[in-house]
Structure to design on (174 residues):
């Protein structure tokens, strides 16, 4: 068996996930995990499948053929590397929207060796003045040697400069 990681981009429309699932199943594959969403009228997804070695090339060819249906699919072969070791923390951020928020926060995370498992961001209308607000939620993995309070302090040092509130929480049940 071989693992494939597929990235998919297409104009959003019903049936994209069904088409992918059908092609994976047609080649005796197993859908392992995925993350997919619609952003700005586009469908974007990443999925991991396991497939018999002898079916991998045929699946890749089939997926390439979906380009004529408007699906741009990239395939990477091989077993996934081990996930980063460390402890998980949830980051929540809210503030007035402006350029550079993601850059500044991710710069601090990277400088401390923090890995991002999942990041979701959006812009919404503020309730009081109607100004655009930015929010981000991330599941991150701190290296074993990094204390959550040390990361919290580093993020607090930039929070006032970039005009956001940042909160770190340990996951529930830990």
């Amino acid at each position: 068996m071989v693992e494939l990681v597929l990235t998919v981009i297409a104009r959003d429309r019903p049936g994209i996930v069904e088409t992918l699932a059908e092609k994976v199943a047609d080649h005796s594959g197993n859908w392992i995990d995925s993350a997919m969403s619609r952003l700005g009228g586009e469908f974007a997804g990443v999925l991991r499948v396991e497939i018999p070695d002898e079916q991998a090339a045929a699946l890749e060819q089939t997926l390439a053929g979906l380009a004529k249906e408007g699906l741009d699919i990239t395939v990477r072969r091989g077993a996934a590397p081990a996930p980063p070791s460390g402890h998980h923390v949830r980051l929540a951020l809210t503030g007035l929207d402006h350029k550079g928020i993601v850059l500044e926060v991710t710069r601090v995370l990277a400088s401390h060796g923090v890995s991002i498992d999942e990041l979701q961001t959006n812009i919404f209308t503020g309730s009081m003045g109607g100004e655009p607000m930015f929010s981000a939620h991330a599941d991150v993995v701190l290296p074993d040697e990094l204390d959550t309070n040390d990361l919290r302090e580093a993020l607090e040092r930039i929070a006032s400069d970039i005009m956001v509130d940042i909160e770190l929480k340990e996951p529930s049940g830990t």
Summary: The mean pLDDT is 93. The chain has two domains: 2-77, 87-169. The beta strands are 2-11, 30-39, 42-51, 72-77, 87-96, 115-125, 132-142, 164-169. The domain at 2-77 is CATH 3.30.70.260 (Alpha-Beta Plaits).
